[in-house]
Amino acid sequence: MSTRQLTLGNFAAHCLDEIKSVQAGDTVIEILSSGKVVAVLSPPPPEEPAGTLADWMGSGAGYMTYGPGYEPDEPAFAPEDWECFQEEKK
User: Fold this and answer.
1) Residue 11 sits in which domain range?
2) Would you say 14 and 8 are in contact if contact means Cβ atoms under 8 Å apart?
3) Is residue 88 over pLDDT 90?
4) What is the count of structural domains for the chain?
5) pTM surpassing 0.70?
6) Is 30 helix (H, G, I), strand (E, B) or coil?
7) Choosing a second label site near 50 at 20 to 30 A (CA), which of 8, 24, 31, 36?
């Protein structure tokens, strides 16, 4: 990767081409004003894959906990409670 120094006026005249060269990852550009570096354009660091939620928190094995007396295979409502809801819909 090369580093180039451009005056502010020269950069302004060719900014689109200069930004494309930075995006391609070939160049770092230092922009000069009155002989001093006032800005630096460089390509962004490579993106790291974010992964999945399971990657972030681990496999999740062993984390499935329920409240006391809760059985996940049992229905959430007793049959008599469900009948009450069915009557309201009629």
Assistant:
1) 2-41
2) no
3) no
4) 1
5) no
6) strand
7) 24
Residue 17 lies in a domain: yes
**27-82 pLDDT, tens digit each:** 899 999 999 999 999 998 888 777 777 666 666 555 666 777 777 787 777 777 77
DSSP for 54-87 reads HHHH---TT-----TT--TTS-SS-HHHHHHHHH
Contact between 15 and 41 under an 8 Å Cβ cutoff? The reply is no
- Residue 22 maps to which CATH number? 3.40.1620
Domain for residue 30, yes or no? yes
Query: Between the CA of residue 22 and those of 5, 9, 50, 77, what are the distances in Å?
Result: 13, 18, 24, 62
Whether residue 83 lies inside any domain: the answer is: no
